[in-house]
Write a structure and sequence with these properties.
Blueprint (H helix, E strand, L loop, with lengths): L3 H23 L7 H21 L6 H4 L1 H33 L7 H4 L2 H20 L3 E9 L10 E5 L10 H12 L5 E5 L9 H9 L7 E4 L2 H5 L2 H13 L3 E3 L3 E7 L2 E7 L14 H15 L9 E4 L6 H6 L4 E4 L14 H5 L5 E5 L2 E5 L16 E9 L2
Helix pairs in contact: 1-2, 1-4, 4-6, 7-8, 8-10
Length: 391
């Protein structure tokens, strides 16, 4: 079985480690001593070989060995941080030389004295935050369109669990168990459930362990559509047949709470199956509009509407179609500061937290997982929402 989603990130890790190795080998004032350089390349070979071979093992080694997962995560992120800071250092030093500044300071002659400790601290901090259990967050949500009968209904959200190399199905089961203790009426999964097909059965078993009276409702994310979509859809079909989980793809369903019916609309992610290529903005908008047209085609406007979407950019269309509350994920909140306030803002207008359009509200969760094991200032989360009528 090909695990192309996780394997793609192995190749990315190889690139980061290769560039870091070139900096440490070829740049004179960044070069390591011979013995240290030999140890570095040996470690590089061992770590990347183990990670690569784990992709083709019957059972993912990283899932069964926490120390191995930590070693690979720390090594990857130290190399990535070294590439970023090392390249930045080289650019600044070149600019200073252009202005004929003499770089006599030890900082410029032996940068590894501060670069290596700095990237090590960055790596340990980010990996520790990524590997820590997700925070459990609670929100009281006041909605103008909420019928009085739905007062107090509790919804739990899991998103972006990315069950794979660095998040196991056991961790997903633990998250569901923690949410079960909160006694939600409904559990929603807003996409990117898993990346490792070897954990398909165990990931769905974890999701199905929810004890919410109204069940589990899910939508697709981009990662489900990258690889193995037919198998995932079949698993959802089996789970629906057994009454455990319902998948919504550009459609709606009716549920009843305390005798009052409400509607859940679930929309597809705007990307073609088996493709990593992002759609152009025009094509993406057309895809989202097509999803909205299909999903809201038979919605009863007099009933309360909850919208589930992986991509938060759907919010404008959800609000235009009178969805009272939308729940989304996808962005990971930028995953690391300062991305949440710089590049991330260019990526999406709805990066994390609460947003409002007219009478519609949306919460964008930063997610409980990741496929690249690094979080800094954006800890993972699982969320519950208690609904209230705004007076």
């Amino acid at each position: 079985m090909t695990i192309s989603t996780t394997l793609w990130f192995v190749y990315r890790g190889m690139i980061y480690c290769g560039i870091a190795g070139l900096l440490l080998t070829a740049i004179p004032h960044m070069r390591l001593h011979k013995r240290a350089l030999q140890c570095y390349w040996l470690m590089n070979l061992l770590v990347m070989s183990v990670w690569y071979m784990s992709q083709f093992s019957t059972q993912n080694w990283l899932v069964t060995s926490a120390p191995l997962r930590w070693i690979i995560a720390l090594w990857l992120n130290a190399n990535m941080a070294y590439v970023a800071t090392g390249m930045g250092f080289l650019v600044i030093s070149m600019l200073l030389r252009l202005f004929r500044r003499k770089l006599r300071n030890l900082l410029w002659r032996k940068p590894n004295a501060w670069l290596i400790p700095f990237v090590s601290i960055l790596s340990v901090s980010g990996v520790y935050e990524a590997m820590s259990p997700p925070q459990l967050r609670h929100f009281d949500v006041y909605l103008e369109q909420l019928p009085p009968a739905l007062e107090g209904m509790k919804i739990a959200q899991i998103t972006d669990s990315h069950v794979g190399d660095f998040v196991s199905s056991a961790e997903l089961a633990s998250a569901v168990s923690r949410l079960n203790a909160e006694k939600p009426d409904l559990l929603v999964m807003t996409g990117d459930l898993l990346d490792d097909e070897r954990q398909l059965d165990s990931a769905f078993a974890a999701l199905a362990s929810a004890n919410a009276p109204l069940g589990v409702v899910a939508v697709l994310g981009n990662h489900e559509k990258y690889q193995g979509l037919p198998a995932i859809l079949q698993q959802y079909k089996n789970a629906e047949t057994s009454g455990q989980i319902r998948l919504l793809v550009d459609e709606k369903m009716n549920l009843s709470y305390r005798g009052t019916e409400f509607q859940i609309v679930g929309v597809d992610y705007p990307i073609l199956p088996d493709s990593r290529r992002k759609l152009a903005e025009t094509a993406k908008l057309e895809y989202l509009q097509s999803s909205a047209k299909k999903a809201f085609s038979d919605v009863t406007r007099e009933q309360w509407i909850l919208c589930l979407t992986h991509h938060p950019d759907f919010f404008d269309l959800a609000a235009a179609n009178q969805a009272s509350l939308s729940l989304a994920g996808h962005t990971h909140g930028g995953q690391a500061l300062p991305l949440g306030y710089t590049v991330g803002r260019l990526w999406s207008d709805y990066l994390k937290g609460w947003f409002q359009r007219q009478q519609s509200q949306m919460y964008v969760s930063v997610g409980m997982g990741h496929i690249w094991p690094y979080r800094l200032g954006v800890p993972t989360e699982i969320v519950t929402f208690t609904l209230h009528t705004k007076k």
